[in-house]
Amino acid sequence: MAVKGSRVNAMVSETVELKGHIIDTLTLARVLDGIQSWGGEFEIEEMHVGRTNADESWA
Question: How deeply is 27 buried, as exposed, middle or buried, from its count of CB atoms within 10 A (0-12, 13-18, 19+)?
Fold first, then answer.
C-alpha cells in the first residue's frame, strides 16, 4: 500500500545455490559482484571447495 508523499522500501530476499567449478571459472565471484552491483548484500551460509580438478564445489 502506498501513501501519498511517502516512500516504501521493500526488502527482497533470495537464496542462490551454485554447484560445479564455481571457483576456477570465477562464477562465484561474478555472482557476488552482480549482487553488490545492484546494491544488494550477501551471506554465504555454507560452502564446500573441491580438493581436485575433478571435484565440484558448491555454495
Answer: middle
